[in-house]
Amino acid sequence: MGTIWIPGAERITPSLPGGVITSTAPPRVVWHTTQNPSGDPRQWSNVIGTLRDKRAEPQVLYDPVSDRLGQFIPLDLSGRALRNDGTTKTNRVGQVCIQVEVIAYAEKPFTNYWKPGPNF
Known about the structure:
Largest sheet: 5 strands, mixed
Helix content: 10-25%
Mean pLDDT: 93
Order of helices and strands: EEEHEEEE
Structural class: alpha/beta
Distance between the termini: 21 Å
């Protein structure tokens, strides 16, 4: 077993703990955008509140402008950011399934303006 808490990441309390992963599918990482502006410190708290209210927390939250990094759930448990299709527990597909929410807009890819900082 490797690292389950990212060193230096802010610990964020989730609404519920993550689920146990029993999948034998290949490991994966899933990136989402929150549809909020990067770099605005107020958005950090707003996004955390929204994710908790929806019970849709990923393992990791990242702001590409401020390089702020937070972690809701240990990396060896499933996040809850993916919508299940009714038959597949999409959050639990993969021996590991790391979900990263990025505070940014999908239509303005953060990779166009992002300069990776030490937290990336």
